[in-house]
Each structure stands twice: as C-alpha cells, then as structure tokens.
Amino acid sequence: MPKKTSKLSIIPLGGTGEIGKNLLVFEYEDSIVVIDGGVKFPEDELLGIDLVIPDISYLEKKRDRIKGLFITHGHEDHIGGLPFILPKLNIPIYGTKLTLGLVQAKFQERTAYPESLIHVLEPGKPVRVGDFEVEAFRVTHSIPDAVGYSLLTPVGRVVYTGDFKVDYTPIDGQNMELGKLAAWGQEGILALLCDSTNAERPGVTISEMAVGKTLREWIERAEGKIIMASFASNVHRIQQAINAAADVGRKVCVVGRSMENVVRTATELGYLRLPEDDILVASSEVGNMAPEKLLVLTTGSQGEPLAALTRMATQSHRQINVLPGDMVIMAATPIPGNEKLVNKTINHLYQIGAEVVTKEMGQVHVSGHANQEEIKLVIRLARPRFLIPHHGEIRHQVGFRRIGNALGYEDEDIAITQLGSRVILSPDRMEFGERVEAGSVYIDGLGVGDVGYIVLKERQQLAQDGVVIIVTALSKTKPYRVLSGPDIIARGFTFMKEAETLVEGAKKEILNTLEIQLQKDQLEWVVIKTNIRESLGKYLWEKTRRRPIILPVLLQL
Amino acid sequence: MPKKTSKLSIIPLGGTGEIGKNLLVFEYEDSIVVIDGGVKFPEDELLGIDLVIPDISYLEKKRDRIKGLFITHGHEDHIGGLPFILPKLNIPIYGTKLTLGLVQAKFQERTAYPESLIHVLEPGKPVRVGDFEVEAFRVTHSIPDAVGYSLLTPVGRVVYTGDFKVDYTPIDGQNMELGKLAAWGQEGILALLCDSTNAERPGVTISEMAVGKTLREWIERAEGKIIMASFASNVHRIQQAINAAADVGRKVCVVGRSMENVVRTATELGYLRLPEDDILVASSEVGNMAPEKLLVLTTGSQGEPLAALTRMATQSHRQINVLPGDMVIMAATPIPGNEKLVNKTINHLYQIGAEVVTKEMGQVHVSGHANQEEIKLVIRLARPRFLIPHHGEIRHQVGFRRIGNALGYEDEDIAITQLGSRVILSPDRMEFGERVEAGSVYIDGLGVGDVGYIVLKERQQLAQDGVVIIVTALSKTKPYRVLSGPDIIARGFTFMKEAETLVEGAKKEILNTLEIQLQKDQLEWVVIKTNIRESLGKYLWEKTRRRPIILPVLLQL
C-alpha cells in the first residue's frame, strides 16, 4: 500500500508524567527510532531501590525494526539507562561527541558497547535511518554538546527540542540553532515535542554566564580553602570555576567519582580547557597545600549520603578536611526531595565553622530548562500544527498547555501523554491510539527488574513497624500438641516498657489460637498461620498501635 | 548569700540547632521557669516514628523548683509536647486564651490537665513566679494570640520574642507591641532571645492581609467547587477565606480533624467570627450541594498521606470528590522535606482535571517568621546587651549572628547555643556553663521514648534489604543432626530470577556451617547463629549485593 496512507506513532516510554528516565519511540511501519534512554532516581517509598529505568518490553518485541537510538545529551536522565537497555537491543546509537564519550564512560564500568554500533553525529548533517531522516540541531542546556532532533517522516516533520534553555551567551559560544528551527517552521512542522520542565515558571532563565560572574566574585573574596559542589555534568560551570581559580593562583582538585569521570572525558574530548597544564592536583596532595592556594571541585551538591562533600561535612573524608574559614559554594539547588539532605550538609558545614555560599546569597546556580517566555519563543519559531509537552510531570504538562492556549492552540491540538500513550499522527490529524506496555523497572543491587510491588510493600511495612516472628513446633501425630514455643522474635518492633506482660499476652493469644486448631483431625498450615496472624495482629495493634509484619513459623516433628 | 552574686541560666532543651520541639528553661537559684513544650516531626531516617519531643530529664530532676510553664502560641512545635511533658511535671501553665484553648483541645484527646493548674494570661499584666516577674507582650505571627515574654530577673531583664513577624496590618487588629519592646529597651535589656528562622532571608515578610486579597480574587473567579488547604492553625487565613466565601454566596465545609478542632475552638473563644450563622455545612451534605455554592477548608497542605486533601486527590475520601473544573488552592508552602508529597498531591489533582492554585500563581501564602529587616528592627528597639538566636538550625543561628555583627555586636556577645547549652548571665557577662542532659525522645504508637537507636537501625536495614529467616530444628542428643530445615523465609528481600539456585546455594551454605558445629560435644547456640549469620550474609552479599537482616531460628527437639 502507498506509504501516505500509513501513520506515525509517537510513544513516550519514559519522561512523561514524570521527571526522569526519558525515552521516546517514533514508529512508522517497519521503522522505529528511539530517542534517549535515561534513569530516574527512586521515590522515597521505593525503599532500597537504586535506580529506575523504563520498561522496554515494547521495544524488545520489535527489536529488529529499531533503526537506531539517538541521544540528546549526556545527563543521567537521558543516558543512565543505556547500560541496561542497549545490551538487550543491540542497536546502533547516535549522538554528539561529548554525549557519546559520557555514554562510553558509563559502559567502561561494565562491558563496553561495540564500537561498530556507535556513531558520532554532526548537527546539521542528516542521517537516513529506515523511513526517517534524522537531523540534530544544537540547543543550549546545562551540559555542552546538547542537541534536539528533527525527524523528517513520510507524514511530515516532527521536532523534539530535548532539554533546553535559550542561553544567548553560552560559555562555549555554541548558540542554540534558532534559525534552523525557524527555517523548518517556514517549511512546516507537523508536531513539536517540547521540554516542559519549567512551564510553570514565568519569564526567562538566566544565562550560565551570570553564574560565572558570581562564582568569580566569591572565589576572589575567599581567604581559606574553597570547595565548590555542583552537578558533575555542568562542564561550563566547572570551566568557569577553573578559570577563576587560575586567575587568583589557586590549584584545582577534582573529587568524587562522577566529577572525576566528567572532567577526564570532557578534557580528553576538548570540551574542558585547562588554563595551565599543572593546574590540577591530586586529592592526596591537598593535605600539604596552603588552603588559600586551593579550589576543590566536588560532588555532593545534593547531599547524597556517600558523596564526597557529604563525607567532608561529616569529617569522614579520607583526604580533604573542611576547616573553619573555608568557603563552601553550593553551586546547585536541591532536586525536589533532596532538600533535607542538602540542608543537613549545610548545617554540618556551619557546625565546622565554614562559610557556606548558597543560592540565597547570590546567583551561584541557574536552571538548565526553558521558562515560559523561552517556550513561547520556540513555539512561535517552529509554528507546529500540534504540540506535545515532554519531560515533565502532569503539572508541568498542563502548565505547558496553558502556554499553548495563550498562543492560540486548542486543547485538542496539545497532547498530554502518559507512559505508553500512542500518539498517532497523520498530516492533518493527531489522535490517541491504544496504550502500549510501559512502566518502571527497578534496579536494586545487581539484579534488574527483580524487585516487585509486594517486596516494596513489605519493606515499607518493615520500615514502619518491623517484623515479629512466631516460632513453634507441633507434634506430627494426634493428639496434636505444642512441642516447643511459641517463641517470639522481633526486629524493628519494640515491645516498649511493659515488655514482659506484652510478650506473655502475645503468647497466650497464640496458644489460644493454636488450641482450637489442634483439636482438628487434620492440621491445616494455612488456616493456622492465618489465624495466628490475625489474632496476634489484632492484639499488638490494640496494645501498641503498630502493625508489624507477623511471620508464623511452624515445624512439625 | 546576697542574690546579686547569683547568676541566671538560660537552657534550651529544644528549638535550637533545629526547627521544632521548642522548650526554653530559665533558672535562677531555686526558681525555674519554662517556656513552651513543642513537638518536632521526625526526620525520614526515624522510620515509623510519629513524634519527637524534648528530653526533659533535667526538669524532672528539679521538678519542685519549677514555678510555671509559659506558652508563646498554639503551634504544634510549641504546645505539641505538653500532653507528654506536663503529666510528668504537674506544674502551673500560663498562656493567652486561644493558646490555652488549643492546649486543652489536645488534652481532651487524653485525660484533661487539671483546671487548677491552667492560668489565662493578659498581655501587659505581669505575674510573679519565684524570683521572676514574667510579662507577656503581643507579637504578630501566623496564629492569633501569639506573645513573647519578658522575664524580669534579679540579674536583669531577658526578653524572648517567641515566633514572630512584623505585620503592620494584622487581620485581628492586634498589633505587635513594638512600643513595649522599645520602653524595655530604654530601661535596658540584658539579653534578647530572638526567632532566627528566616535570618537568611533578606527584606521583610509580606502581611497576611496580602494573602486575603489574593484568596478573594481566586474565590471570586472560581466556577466549580473550591477546596482550600492550609495549616489548620492559621485562623486569620481561614477567617479571610470564610469572609470571601460568604460574600460570593458560598457555604463553607470544614474537613480534617485538626482543622475541625481549631475552627471549633477559635469560634467558641471568639477568635473566628462566622459572617452568617448558617455558613458552615457538614461534609455529609456536600454531596447534595451545587459545586459553585461551596468552599471546602481542609487539612493536607503538606501532602500528609492520611490527610483529607490527600484522600480527595486520590479519590478515596468518603464524602468529598474532586471534580474536573474544581479549584484547589494550596494556601501553604511545603515544609522542607514535604516537597515530594505535596508535589504528588498536586499532580493527582491535575490528573483529575482540577485547577490547582499554588504559590507560583499568586500570593496565597506568606511566612509567619521575621526576615532580616524585621529582626534588625527588633534588635534596634530592644537594644539588648547580649543576643541569643533561638528557633533555628545552625545555618539560621549563624545567619542571625551575621545580622548581629552588621548591627555592631561582637561574636562573643552572640550565643550560638546547642541543645542543653547552659548560657550563664550576670549583669555584665555572658558565658557558657556545663551542658545539661538534653536530646530527643521518640514517640511511636502509644509508647513514649520506647524506640531505641537499635530498633531504628533495624528498621533502616529492613527497609533497605528486608529480612531473611532461617529455621532449622536440631536433635537434642548426640550425634547431633538436622531434623528439619534449613527452611528459608524472606520478607522485603527478593531472590531475583535465579531464585532456586540462590536458595539452594544459601541452604548449602548453612548446612556446611552447621556440619562443623554439629561435630562438637556441646552445641553452642550463639556460636552457631553467629556463624550462620556471617557465612550466609557473605554469600548473599556476593550474589545479590544486598545485606538483609539474617535471623537464624534454631529449635532443639
């Protein structure tokens, strides 16, 4: 059949209705193109979970149709899932130099991804994959070498901005290719997928250059050692800090695994320029150096319990001690949910007697995502027929829709998607198809996707009220009797002061339950255990207002 | 000996180095006066803890010297601990009418506190207790009837602001008594204890009146049902919402236990005036009412899992459903740590199709604590010899010290206290004495102070990796052999895909350990259990990178 009768499907498997684990699927007949494969950091209630990645069952089923995976930039929420996803798909990947460098760095921690499948992409040089012609265009963001993508498809051109802000004075001089967007807009764009993270924020974001100015002021003012914590991937901020350090005659020490990785990769690939060859010093040397000659770049801006800054703040870092009079610059704001951890770190630093520079005290951080006026600019330039907010929770998607409405778009021309939504596009129509399998895969320890809902529920309950184990042995033959126990073991559950009476009461409770059951001709394990669970549960709730997990362990001998 | 040679001790048992559980002790010879007795809401790592209150061992030892407990205002972090603290001390308490009303409401949930010990206090009417003359003065805060205290002591006058902001246009017309503060300042104030919560925030706070204006605008604009969530204790905000509702012809439904309590108490005592006698409707009636005729006042502004708004947002509230087109006003900002929960509620509401009004969209909340310029004003008026920041974490206390420095105070004239610090004041000197016993008491379920560090550690580990229980029965007599098991039970710990092999491996591991032990003439429980824990722990860590709690359960039959 003639292609024109077919339609394009756009399926977000991650990054919609949520911030994190971005993954977009574009499907036209036998051609599938994927954009990004990120991770998300677990919600508090995902106890003990390390990472969350998108469920890619849908892609696994159609693996042989996937023509390639294109990466917008090197942030964890766009590349962090690749080490888990790519080995299952074995597909060619495309991205800019730094982005691929950071991906390879992730793989080097595991078995490397085959070179033959890795393709460096030049913005402005389209590549043909299946029925798509994919072209990257430069955007400005909080990491260098970030791009958005244009997909020229049989039904029309679709553009995805990727994460972006409109920074007119980017540190590396690589401007956002607004002209390109405008040109495509003239030709006609069918649909625009747009970063909606900051859709609730009025006005425009501030340029990274402003942060550089503020950093320089603080660095010039500092008397003791300077410790700056920021996101490892913010190469531009790191560059500006290093430049300022050089100008005031300070050496730079890079601490923290991810920070070391990024600085190494970015330097090797020429995205980070060291003003002096010998400006970097090893953390082992820090002890012997004069504080006023030193700038430490470190991870831990989010108060992560194991990060370098956190260990420094708690005086438990092997090489670097924070001293009274040192200056700690928190060049990042807490990601929602991290406020308490960050606050704790800051308080520890004050306790030591350090000066702590936070956002309240000057422009030491700016967002990497477009505010309302920048989003409007991009929509006006692209002039798309349809709008699809991406990279946002529903509050951000709805905020984006309000912006679209303000620019004259009807609600039905703006698709608010969910995970697995199938947006079907024809040249003149946008509609929702049947949802595909989508969701979250939890990564815990070494296993992938091995932690189910039940287990999490259990951990939650364990965390709340602990566990009470009842051990008792019953005779094999009639008359059934209790050979030993019931013994009670508790963990994470406390019997409070009137322990004895409570334990005695609990045992009586159990024995009463058993008595009835032991009369029967046949002992029914399930029934006995359920009854014990119920009667003891009721008893403990009345006495302690707590609901520990109750585990009856029965032996028959 | 002549009094003048004695000294005054000021001891914070709560509310310093932290936000919450405020409790200040003033001690002069045989006279002790206490101010406030609050609770603090638990940190995330205090798994399953409901409340945290100050450790008052110090006061219990000196109970017969305590002349009275004075309360500044009715917020939880100032009165929430009283139902646990007062029964242990049985001392007279003093406070303004509304404050005591709220305290009694708390007690009515338990056994009431003896009327004979409760004294209503009039600002401006000093009371003599022991060696102190205590006088309340009005301050403006986010709850009516808030006061600070002046303590006239043998060594001089000490003033504690309590929680305050300088609101020149308070809703109830009860202005902050700045003149009083100035007059005392003229006479000479020895030390000022001052609210330092917002010491990092420049400028001044905005008047509660501004919130009223914004609320009215939204309430007039709304088409469907209006649901407003705020702190229950913010009587002024509730008053303004009710007034606006009355003006647009909406009835008001009050939902949520604490909200109902406060509205009842405040109305009874005349702090909340209902513009129409029949303006309140029961939540049972809401179902039959036209949405545009209704304003629901509810708890849940912090996304608390069990609060009314949270249940409405998840469509699980018995009487009140949120419908598309309803307007939900979040008239509060998240307390640090609650951001994620609040965000989740907001997203649920958008999912339903409600319009959600947050602080980003207009002045629907203001802080109740003084910013830098207000703190400066109070210091200038009081002109104290010494400064003691209270009600703040160390970052806020240090922020307050910066303000003090800016006004010409030396560091040594500003006391940065910790829990249990003893600040010793003589007419011309401020120094630190020996710290007294102080800290936190955890309240969990019905018990008080019954949850120890170990239990919390256990809960943490359970929450991370769960628990694995090993059950096995051994013979009583030699040759010792395994009669049953080892059986393995796991909760919150998952054996992943290769379950069987892992379980088998674990059993082998245990049997090997047992085998060695069973050779011995005497079975040593402790040794056996320890060995099982170690060998199995090692095995599971290697295979799964997790450390569940391992509980060997041995029976001998």
Which stretches of chain A of 5+ consecutive residues score pLDDT under 50?
445-450
- Which chain pair has the greatest contact? A-B, 63 and 63 residues
Provide the structure class of chain A.
Answer: alpha/beta
**Could you tell me the radius of gyration of chain A in angstroms?**
29 Å
CATH class of the largest domain in chain A: Alpha Beta
Average predicted local confidence, pLDDT of chain A? 89
- The count of strands of chain A amounts to 25
The CATH topology assignment of the largest domain in chain A is Metallo-beta-lactamase, Chain A
Oligomer: homodimer
Instruction: Name the strands of the widest sheet of chain A in spatial order.
Output: 7-6-5-3-2-1-19-20
> What's the story with the biggest beta sheet of chain A?
8 strands, mixed
Number of domains of chain A: 3
The name of the CATH architecture of the largest domain in chain A is 4-Layer Sandwich
Give the strand content of chain A: 15-25%
User: What would you call the shape of chain A?
Assistant: globular
How far do the termini of chain A sit from each other?
73 Å
By DSSP (H or I, 4+ residues per run), the number of helices of chain A equals 16
What portion of residues of chain A is helical?
Answer: 25-40%
Describe the structure.
Chains A, B: One of its GO terms (biological process) is rRNA processing. Chains A, B: Keywords: Calcium, Cytoplasm, Endonuclease, Exonuclease, Hydrolase, Metal-binding, Nuclease, RNA-binding, rRNA processing, Zinc. The structure is a homodimer of 557-residue chains. By secondary structure, the first copy, chain A, is an alpha/beta fold. Chain A has 3 domains: 8-203 and 367-448, 4-Layer Sandwich (Metallo-beta-lactamase, Chain A), CATH 3.60.15; 209-357, Rossmann fold (3-Layer(aba) Sandwich); 453-556, Ubiquitin-like (UB roll) (Roll). In chain A, 32% of the residues lie in helices and 23% in strands. Chain A has 16 helices and 25 strands. Chain A is globular. At the A-B interface, helix 11, helix 13, helix 14, strand 23 and strand 24 of A face helix 11, helix 13, helix 14, strand 23 and strand 24 of B.
